[in-house]
What we know:
Largest sheet: 2 strands, antiparallel
Structural class: mainly alpha
Order of helices and strands: HHHHHEHHHHEEHHHHHEHHHHHH
Number of helices: 20
Radius of gyration: 21 Å
Number of domains: 1
Number of strands: 4
Strand content: under 5%
Amino acid sequence: xxxxxxxxxxxxxxxxxxxxxxxxxxxxxxxxxxxxxxxxxxxxxxxxxxxxxxxxxxxxxxxxxxxxxxxxxxxxxxxxxxxxxxxxxxxxxxxxxxxxxxxxxxxxxxxxxxxxxxxxxxxxxxxxxxxxxxxxxxxxxxxxxxxxxxxxxxxxxxxxxxxxxxxxxxxxxxxxxxxxxxxxxxxxxxxxxxxxxxxxxxxxxxxxxxxxxxxxxxxxxxxxxxxxxxxxxxxxxxxxxxxxxxxxxxxxxxxxxxxxxxxxxxxxxxxxxxxxxxxxxxxxxxxxxxxxxxxxxxxxxxxxxxxxxxxxxxxxxxxxxxxxxxxxxxxxxxxxxxxxxxxxxxxxxxxxxxxxxxxxxxxxxxxxxxxxxxxxxxxxxxxxxxxxxxxxxxxxxxxxxxxxxxxxxxxxxxxxxxxxxxxxxxxxxxxxxxxxx
Length: 437
């Protein structure tokens, strides 16, 4: 096992990897409840959505661990599932079979780009300063997710965002999880972030935040599997309808852009915590990661789970010591178990994971010192990424704003030669993406 996973080489152990896997799983277990609740709006039976979500995450996360040997976990991505439910199946009126076919198409398209080397080449073409900006922006984004899930920050019509109700149970649990994470990490307690989640969840029971499960085991429902090959309400196979409808092919392109750059940002964030990010901001051994992630998107469509992608919450496990693919395999096995025990697993409240996510956000802010903020070409586009990711609540939107800004600033400052050819391509693609969304 040591030879395959390279424990000694990466300064870790099987016990550390298992603990890190549990930390990552608990940080992203909310998807077991949230994804089915969103997909149910598309007409997908809840039990079937739970099965597809868990099995899809299990299969692709284990694949990620085996083939990339990095601590990255995969599950149905937030954002795209909402597009499936409320746009493709909602306002546009297509059946969920057709919507999943669109997901399958965009996943295959991304895989082709990876196999052609284009996705990796674009990542290499990104200026170092922008890579640091992606890491910083993701740190703020991760922290924002944690604070939102605990109700520490809430939406406000007047100020857009405001402080939540300090007397609410979720707020208290969130603050406790943050405090525990900081205290235990400062005391160098192994598994500090994991213990912060567990203790906060227990505290949440008397506060009414952590629900008591009404059941333990739930039956599996494979209704959505092979969704694109099923007949849509129009009487046509979902895949056929998707391929013969120009509007849906444009949607596939938009989703591809989102998946394309979301994964790039996530991989960099996890690599930063997992110590496989080089000094110039490149992710080591990125190719197998991108290949598995691309296949995951297609598999998500085939299973009916929406697009499966690499989760930024993986950085919590990496920050807790995860360095190898064993962390991912542990997460995958836990998702497999969760497919049967979803009523029990879903009791872990998102407020309890707040501390882990906020602390990871803090760790990722260290890249701020590596950016020359006095250089307008290096500093301003980086700032647009840092601000754009959390403020638009989208990794790909923030990256797109930074890329387009970089090209504009380079042109007006007479530094066009510093723009690599693929940066022109990426910026133009983002401009088209923003116009289509």
